[in-house]
Specification:
Helix content: 40-55%
Largest sheet: 5 strands, antiparallel
Number of strands: 16
Mean pLDDT: 92
Length: about 475
């Protein structure tokens, strides 16, 4: 097993690969400091959200449910179906432009603070290794040592805990797609009864073990495309984790006669704690995920040598060059306007969406019929009613004329007095409105409102205006 030599990093290839392309293993040193505490808190909050969110209900529905096989989705109390697919465009656009905006302003802050790869590897899996195997030096020595009872025991215990954590993550992830309550029910039955879900769970658990337990930084460097496109999204005004070469150079041991030594003592502490094995002093690199470990490590060293903190810090390239860094620039302004526009369109579309969607069209036959009832003339209008139930529950609806018109002797005639609409389905019903001729006041047209009443709660779910038409005199 080849282990990273922090004082002999290659310049022409990633430090995690040797000259033959084989992997060089990294054992990052444990770090302490302000950003470490802040990242620990952030990771804990994100993990708790992942584990708890499927069990929270809003308006009686799971807070976040993406039931793809049944094509129904519950998002923070709102219910959506497959026909709401166009709304996905707005969500994807917001995520894409939002990520581009954040990268343009703060570099790879997502990678270092919010990416699941970083959250679980740094926040859970490495902590297990520190707990079972000890410090990075002990881990390195154990990896190089021949197999023994102690090595087998420690590795076995570590991977057992890795497996348990991976199973918890996988089941929590599945709860977002099959429902938390249904997931609990499935775990109590034979896997053969839910074979597809079981295989999916097995695959995801195996992948997490492979990725979080072994592949780790290789995923960020080799597989993730985000690191490769950051050069397009970032510029000199982007705030990133960077080394202040003006203050740090020349380093200790590299001072030319007549020059004043910089603050960097060339201790390689920043390399020792880096999870991707880079030297931040070489400038912005694709492998850097902006995790801030080097900031905390360097600050600790600066304290010990009585130097100001911040030799490595969040700073823009422009600031390091002595130029004024500008947050408001054409690119970020365009991102901001697009984000605001798309977010507004999403809010408008969601706010206009109804749980019970009602469409009333006039029948294709005669516009009206005049019938004689005793001494009175009545007019009949034919309408076609289309109702779509966009909730997850069956709904029983009734039609009635709104209260403003209840004394006008307007009668609703329909084959179905109670209309049952199955969850996620739609139904078409024909109905007639019969009313006295004097309602239209000789104008031939009168608008009234029809209420759609939930017969289970007696609440009005929707209402629509319809035009009554008849002879003008």
């Amino acid at each position: 097993m080849k282990v990273l030599n922090k004082r002999d990093l290659p310049e022409e290839r990633p430090s995690t690969l040797d000259e033959t392309g084989k992997r060089v293993y990294i054992f990052p040193e444990k770090v302490r400091g302000f950003f470490r505490k802040l990242r620990t808190l952030t990771q804990a909050v994100l993990i708790v959200i992942l584990l708890v969110l499927p069990w929270i209900k809003i308006n009686g529905y799971q807070a976040l449910l993406l039931d793809i096989p049944n094509r129904k989705f519950s998002i923070f109390g709102l219910t959506f179906w497959a026909h709401d697919g166009p709304l996905i465009f707005f969500i994807l656009a917001i995520l894409t432009i939002g990520l581009a905006f954040i990268t343009a302003v703060y570099g790879r802050v997502w990678c270092g603070w919010g990416c699941p790869q970083t959250v679980f590897v740094d926040g859970v899996f490495r902590r297990i290794e520190y707990l079972i195997m000890g410090s990075h030096i002990k881990q390195m020595n154990l990896a190089k040592a021949p197999w023994s009872g102690e090595k087998i025991l420690k590795y076995s215990l570590t991977w057992i805990l890795f497996t348990i954590v991976s199973l918890i993550i996988t089941h929590s992830f599945l709860a977002y797609f099959v429902g938390a309550e249904r997931l609990v029910e499935m775990t109590q039955h034979n896997p053969g009864e839910n074979w597809t879900i079981f295989l999916f769970m097995f695959f995801i658990t195996s992948f997490l073990l492979f990725d979080f337990g072994w592949f780790r930084e290789q995923f960020c460097i080799i597989m993730c495309p985000y690191g490769r496109i950051q050069s397009v999204l970032m510029d000199d005004d982007s705030v990133t984790v960077a080394y202040d070469y003006n203050r740090g150079e020349p380093r200790k041991g590299k001072v030319v006669e007549g020059e004043q030594q910089g603050d960097c003592i060339d201790c390689y502490k920043c390399v020792s704690v880096c999870p991707t094995g880079i030297d931040i002093r070489r400038g912005l690199q694709m492998e850097c995920v902006g995790c801030t470990a080097c900031i905390d490590a360097c600050d600790e060293v600066m304290e010990h040598v009585s130097k100001p903190k911040g030799l490595i810090r969040y700073v823009s390239g422009s600031s390091l060059k002595g130029l004024k860094a500008g947050f408001l620039k054409p690119r970020t302004a365009v991102y901001s306007v697009l984000l605001l526009l798309i977010l507004s369109l999403l809010v408008i579309n969601v706010s206009r969406r109804e749980e019970i969607m009602v469409t009333i069209l006039r029948g294709k036959d005669l516009p009206y019929q005049v019938v004689q009832e005793g001494e009175d003339k009545k007019i009949i209008n034919h309408f076609k009613l289309h109702i779509k139930n966009q909730t997850f529950e069956d709904t029983l609806l009734g039609l009635k004329v709104s209260d403003d018109w209840k004394n006008e002797n307007i009668e609703i005639i329909s084959q179905k007095s109670d209309i049952n609409i199955v969850a996620g389905k739609d139904i078409t019903v024909h109905f007639f409105l019969k009313f006295p001729q004097e309602i239209i006041d000789g104008t031939g047209v009168k608008s009234i409102e029809i209420d759609f009443v939930d017969l289970q709660t007696n609440g009005i779910r929707s209402n629509r205006k319809v035009k009554l038409i008849g002879p003008m005199s």
